[in-house]
Amino acid sequence: MIVATVRDIRAFSPSVLPPPRHDGRLRILNIGLPILGLSSFTKSLAEHAATRDDVVMTHFELVNATWMKVLFRVSPVPWSMDLQCANMVNLWRCRIRRAIDSGALNLDCFDAVVTCPQHHTMAFIDRRPDRPFVISAHTDATAANTVRDFGDSPITTRPLDRCDRYLLPRCDLVTCMGWFAGNSARDDYGVDPDRLMLVPPTTTEITPGDPPGKTPARGRLARIAIAGNDWVRKGGPELLRWHQSRWTERAELHVIGQGAPEDPAARNVVWHGRVPREKLLNELFPSMDLFVLPTKRDMSPWVLVEAAGAGIAAVSSRLGGIPDEVIDGQTGLLCTPGAENEFIRAIESLLDDPDRCFRMGLAAREYARRHFTPRVVYGGLLDRLWTEFRRQAPRGIRAEAE
Predict the structure, then answer these.
(1) What is the DSSP-derived secondary structure letter of residue 237?
(2) Three-state SS for 346?
(3) Contact present, 183 and 200 (Cβ < 8 Å)
(4) Whole-number Å distance between alpha carbons of 138 and 107
(5) In what order do the strands lie in the sheet with 251-256?
(6) Domain 2-202+373-401: homologous superfamily in CATH
(7) CA dihedral defined by 66, 72, 76, 80, rounded to 10 degrees?
(8) What average pLDDT does this structure show over 151-165?
(9) Nearest to 224 by CA among 269, 257, 179
(10) Which among 55, 90, 122, 356 is placed 20 to 30 Å from 367, CA to CA?
């Protein structure tokens, strides 16, 4: 059950909170930033919680007020050197603590808090109630990840690194979109492995069996898809160049998402622009043969999981949490980021063998059915939160909860 979705911290009141006494349901505060995959996690968790009778949830979106955006606007420096993120994290820490201290955000109404990203657990660690209360942080990457894996500046990353060192060891549960983040939480920040849980991106529910109407690309042009709104970072210009120089007579390239500059002269390229997720999952992806994402920087892209759920083999970069989403050699092929010849060989190997590409797509769909559906992922997370609450709870509350 969902009590309310709150988008302004000043709107907290009894009407948007669960009851102030435990009533047999797990009362959860679900907090997230309305940004890309982070927003997808919190919204999808809320949607699944709405189907469960044993939980009650308030969903809080951390929408930055105009004055916050003005005070901490993005600096004219490279993204990895900008301190806006750290400044916003600390400002939200202060605002949430103030809401707790004033009584507007009454923690007596909650048994657990889930935040995405991880940094927004800090206010709840600062104000942890003296009773059973589960603090769960969801992370797509740690500060150490961004320095080691993506080359960010260790100097400008230091404020977020301090946050991670404070919060991660103090959380009751640390969930990660990919194990590269979970392994960093363990190795760089000392999180007990028993408190780590993989909570990957999700697609829709998938029925067992082969996708209806899907066939190998024999005797026709193969359909290659790329999807994403950051055209350059996702490797779009490179894929378009490879296609135009090598595969125009063998494959159509379908470009999905905003940000790609349309080129009317490009041969056998279909420019879809931005499309609703429902259309992407139910119409476009099921008609594709191969998904290619030669991304230069990513954590755990949702689109790879969504492509797998539609039964599409993938070729992508071996970085971040992608190896948890694409099983190299089974559900797709992984390449070294920036290694153009490696990508070209991988793509051509699947164009040359449409039956292998088709089998990989079927394997991807089955893997997604077992690992990436809301029932599996969010059901598992809610069950884990229940387990942790029961572990903390005194006997009377534990018996009532059971």
Answers:
(1) H
(2) helix
(3) no
(4) 20
(5) 269-273, 251-256, 222-227, 290-293, 313-317, 332-335
(6) Glycogen Phosphorylase B; (3.40.50.2000)
(7) -120
(8) 94
(9) 269
(10) 55
At residue 70, does pLDDT exceed 90? no
Intra-chain end-to-end CA distance of the chain, in Å:
18
For domain 222-371, say whether CATH 3.90.1150.30 is its number: no
- Mean model confidence pLDDT for the chain: 93
Any idea which residue has 């992407």 for tokens? 280
Helix, strand, or coil here: 220? coil
- The DSSP secondary structure of 293-316, one letter per residue, reads E--SS-SS-HHHHHHHHTT-EEEE
Question: In the predicted model, is pLDDT for residue 74 greater than 70?
Answer: no
CATH fold match for the domains 2-202+373-401 and 222-371: yes
Domain boundaries defined on the chain: 2-202+373-401, 222-371
What pLDDT does 104 receive? Answer: 95
Structure tokens at 93: 């820490």
**Tens digit of each residue's pLDDT (9 = 90 or more) over 301-342:** 999 999 999 999 999 999 999 999 999 999 999 999 999 999
